[in-house]
């Protein structure tokens, strides 16, 4: 379910965007109020708003660059954002600094976004310098205690840095978990292919080697000893028949699915992808052939839920020879069935059963397969 990690990422980043947007609007309104009250000039207001727009505009870009990758060096935009933040602080008179929320929080915000680009020791040094300078400046223009301002701003900065690092760690954890699941699935497919290749090699390698040698020998004997050449070719034919029979047995073994194992496998795969799966199967009285057909239907249905839906819940019910798989992850309008569903339908119909797969009026997707017991 590739959409789920991306959805988590968007929710996380959009939530932080909304928070930064709200703070930007509040600070802009405060500056406008001081301009309407005559505390600052229009030129002063324009400069303040420009610095605000630069800082809050770069903030989402810096977040996305840090969340989508693991930056090994600070982005030049980090320095630009710091300059905008410094400009917003320096341009404001002391009246604005006494408002709540304080403009000095912009410095703490800048330190928090810098923390996701810089190593923690360097972040601590930069943060100490930024907060020390801004606290000294606030103390100078307001007359407040420098140590009191520094402690207050340091606590805010530590909280923001911790939150920023926690948010990023949560996203990386979600992404790494999903990537690990994808890698595990690819590894399972690769291992199955290797196993199939080994089985074919074991089955055919020896037989084909002997067939090749006997064919070469028969070709040499054809002009010298026709009887022996005919005998060698008869052996070649028997060897080819035996090899073909072994391959057919091997393929039949791959085609034969166990219904209980398939139900457990599909349930585990769906729940690993975040889809709750409920299984209610009563198929003890079915013949091996009918159980194998239903196993194929379960496998194909589970594959389609994983590949083509955003289901949060899937129910698998088997009552006698009737299988129903329902999921709530219908996306868009129904399209033409894929090769898997067409092949499954042909297999069931050929065996005297029936098959359907389509959305329901209740907003679910229903796969229904019926077989003769």
TrEMBL record:
GO terms for cellular component: membrane. One of its GO terms (molecular function) is protein dimerization activity. Pfam families: HisKA_3 (PF07730). Signal peptide: none annotated. Residues 192-256 form the Signal transduction histidine kinase subgroup 3 dimerisation and phosphoacceptor domain. It comes from the Bacteria. The chain crosses the membrane at residues 12-36, 42-63, 75-96, 116-138, 150-172. Keywords: Kinase, Membrane, Transferase, Transmembrane, Transmembrane helix, Two-component regulatory system. This is Two-component system, NarL family, sensor histidine kinase DesK. It comes from Nonomuraea solani. The lineage of its organism: Bacteria, Bacillati, Actinomycetota, Actinomycetes, Streptosporangiales.
